[in-house]
Amino acid sequence: MKIKIYTDGGSRGNPGISGFGLVVIDEANQIVYQQSQSLGIKTNNEAEYAGALSAISWLVANQSRFTSAQFISDSQLMICQINGQYKVKAANLIPLYQQLISLISQVKIPLTFSHTLREGNQLADQLANQAMDQQ
């Protein structure tokens, strides 16, 4: 079974109150897993990476159930960094990027990383906003 993993991180203020949401959808458009988490005071990009780290950690633990995964985010910066198109220059993102790359190396099924516009990421966005609302 193929899955799509949508993540979104947000910060109200930058840095500010932050959180992320993630949702995993199967081929029948059914939700396989979802998560929403408050993060305290973080930047928007730190929240985006936190969502990605949580999603890929979940995938590593559950990958035997699936044939492939497509990771989708509205963070163009993060997707371009993961795909090697942009260098990671911000000191606060370097360790998060390194953690993420380490987790990605543990995924044994085909995995792609794609950018979408905010409109294509509505459920993960709602979950991220719920996480921020809880603080």
Description:
This protein is of the alpha/beta class and 135 residues long. The chain has one domain: Nucleotidyltransferase, domain 5 (2-Layer Sandwich). The chain is 36% helix and 34% strand. The chain has four helices and five strands. It has helices at residues 44-62, 76-82, 94-104, 122-133; strands spanning 2-13, 16-26, 31-42, 68-73, 111-115. A five-stranded mixed β-sheet has the order 3-2-1-4-5. A hairpin with a 4-residue loop joins strand 2 and strand 3 (31-42). The longest helix has 19 residues, at 44-62. The radius of gyration is 14 Å and the shape is globular. The relative contact order is 0.25. The model has no long low-confidence stretch (mean pLDDT 97).
Write the layout of secondary structure elements.
Blueprint: E1 2-13, E2 16-26, E3 31-42, H1 44-62, E4 68-73, H2 76-82, H3 94-104, E5 111-115, H4 122-133
Parallel strand pairs: 1-4, 4-5
Antiparallel strand pairs: 1-2, 2-3
Helix pairs in contact: 1-3
